[in-house]
Amino acid sequence: MSDRPVAIDPSDWVCPLPLRETKRIVLGHGGGGILSEELIENLFLPAFGSAGGPSRDSALLQVSGGQIALTTDSYVVNPLFFPGGNIGDLAVNGTINDLACSGAQPLGLTAGFIIEEGLELEVLGAIAQTMGKAADHAGVGIVTGDTKVVGKGGADGLFVNTAGVGVVPDGVRIGPEQARPGDHIIVSGNVGEHGVAIMSVREGIDFGTAVTTDSAPLHRLVAAMLAATGDPNVVHALRDPTRGGLVAATVEIARTAGIGVELDEGRIPVPETVSSACSFLGLDPLQVANEGKLVAFVDPAHSEAVLEAMRSRPEAAGAVIIGRAVAEHPGMVVGLTPFGTTRVIERELGEQLPRIC
């Protein structure tokens, strides 16, 4: 058998299912909506095989003595700096939160930098310093990394790629497939702040008061939730509602678990500043990105204990129960409006706000 690599002709590749009416990537493919899901399910998964899965932000791997969680992410936020943070702490916190939503406590992170020729060293240094401080605050090290430089116009300043590895405590089984009818749905605080903070800078819009990113690490919050009752299986599913916001997170869990979701829209904490900004911009705050919040599906018999544990943490002082999982309308999310009506809530096709993480 020849050791020469097999040449692959791109013209021979056939997509297993059609990807809408486009033959090229559009921004919406990276937005966490329907186009993103189709890209993963119809292009990447057939190519990579059954080892991967679109329903998890991190993979659980069996090792001697237990489980570890492994995640990777890339950050292309524009602008690099925004109220309350920058691409550096966003990358650290986002990677930690992907691990946390599998129930894992982080062990170490990696950081890869794709730097555009011409980026000021002062800017890069400030971002690196922020990353280091964020990692130190979270109690996890950035243990290895890589640097590449591309020509002018090749990276829009700076792109950051990260990976993270963490340990899943014994007995913890958290995943979207674990959600079940009857579960209470808890959100850890105000929604929509990160996306509006990005837009305020990007579009130069003054909303009358400062809106800052909610970016924060959530692994200590998850540890408190798991310890609330002494039974780690009380918490069934967790998701950080980043791209696509609260809607994308709950729809993904509903579809994976084969359950329905009912959200009480009057109980969902949307700050007035976010609501006003979204009304001005024509956005749905429930589909605007968050970077320091989580959504939890919890055993209803223990939801109050978990809620109390969450509220004892500064990153979840505003936690509230916003709905429940039901056996009806599996795979669908229904909103109960303040007017007493109901509506089906579906994800955006692409993305309301591109380049927000």
Automatic annotation (TrEMBL):
Residues 56-168 form the PurM-like N-terminal domain. Belongs to the HypE family. NCBIfam families: hypE. This is Hydrogenase expression/formation protein HypE. It comes from Candidatus Mycolicibacterium alkanivorans. InterPro entries: HypE, PurM-like_C_dom, PurM-like_C_sf, PurM-like_N, PurM-like_N_sf. Pfam families: AIRS (PF00586), AIRS_C (PF02769). Residues 180-329 form the PurM-like C-terminal domain.
